[in-house]
Design brief:
Structural class: alpha/beta
Strand content: 25-35%
Strand order of the largest sheet: 8-9-10-7-11-12-13-14
Number of strands: 14
Largest sheet: 8 strands, mixed
Number of helices: 12
Distance between the termini: 45 Å
Helix content: 25-40%
Length: about 325
């Protein structure tokens, strides 16, 4: 089994923990968090955009707790770490882990400065370690289905795609502290809307033109974006809209609408079980699958790359491309 530690036990750290515990190839041996005394409280209170299931407090009692990776490595023989802290800590922690000879799965956004990402890639190559970035939309069943419809032309050619993602200002975990440190996560553009930006680029490639309007919020100068992408020589228009400019209790919602030659489709997390397929004279509902499987799928893919010494499913190079694409929305 792959001996693994989760670094950061906030919303995303708990999400990774729950899905690691479901995977028989991974042995969760440690959780690293600056507030190990507060882990039980975090588990009871929960946080984030959706409910986290599958963490048995009794199981966690058998997992060692540490306040730093350095402390953990003195006592544990780790193979890999999952980095689930705020973006400003991704680079130093990933560098420390790679230099210690560990495989690394780091949450998105990979880094905010591409040069840091390239340095991490060099270290991973020199150490012959796996470095993967967790862009979860690539692994969610409903988005994988959309990708298949586009690529296979199930409903004819894609003509228009609209992606949306909205939430209130994060008010859980370290977000409460980080809001005073302006732009520490890159704001909604790099932390929230990066999901849709990465997915569309993954499916359709880099756009030739971007028209974008932004609005400042409490975390950055770009906590709302409304962007149109165009592709030269291709009759495809893409709209990406969203952000976290609303009050904290505003319910999270995300989804897509796509207009193909022969049908239009719609999916929203407000009705997460089904995708609507509309033609001129009929409406059909198809299963959207379980979006929470995306987290399990990406973690399983990372573990598989380690076991088989294969390429990672979401490369750090592609994650840097996505970061640079995010910058194109504000430059």
């Amino acid at each position: 089994m792959i001996k693994t530690a989760v670094i950061g036990f906030g919303f995303m750290g708990m999400t990774h923990t729950a899905n690691i515990l479901k995977n028989t190839d991974i042995d969760l041996v440690a959780i690293i968090d600056k507030d190990v005394e507060g882990i039980d409280k975090k588990l009871k209170e929960g946080s984030g955009n959706f409910e986290i299931e599958g963490i048995d407090p009794a199981v966690l009692k058998r997992v060692s707790l540490y306040t730093s990776l350095r402390e953990c490595l003195k006592k544990e023989a780790l193979d890999a770490v999952h980095i689930c802290v705020h973006t400003d800590l991704h680079f130093p922690l990933a560098k420390e882990a790679l230099e210690a000879g560990l495989h690394v799965l780091v949450e998105k956004p990979f880094v905010l400065r591409p040069e840091e990402g390239f340095e991490l890639i060099r270290i991973a190559q020199n150490k012959n370690r796996k470095l993967m970035v967790a862009h979860v939309l690539r692994f969610m069943p409903v988005y994988q289905q959309l990708k298949a419809w586009i690529e296979q032309k199930t409903y004819g050619k894609l003509l228009f795609l609209s992606m949306n993602r909205f939430s209130g200002v994060p008010a859980w975990g370290q977000w409460k502290e980080k809001q005073v440190n302006f732009g520490v996560s890159g704001g909604a553009l790099f932390d929230l809307m990066i999901h849709d930006i990465d997915f569309v680029a993954h499916v359709l490639g880099q756009p030739d033109e971007i028209d974008c309007q932004v609005m400042a919020g409490s975390l950055s100068p770009h906590d709302y974006i409304n962007a149109t992408w165009r592709y030269n020589g291709r009759k495809i228009h893409v709209k990406i809209e969203g952000g976290n400019i609303f009050h904290s209790a505003f319910p999270f919602q995300a989804g897509f609408m796509a207009r193909f030659e022969e049908a239009s489709v719609r999916y929203t997390t407000m009705d997460p079980d089904s995708v609507i397929i509309a033609r001129n004279d009929s409406i059909e509902l198809v299963s959207a699958g379980d979006s929470n499987l995306g987290f399990y799928n990406e973690i399983a893919a990372f573990a598989e790359s380690i076991k088989k010494n294969a390429s990672v499913a979401c490369t750090p190079e592609s994650a840097i491309d996505t970061i640079e694409l995010c910058y194109r929305h504000i430059l």
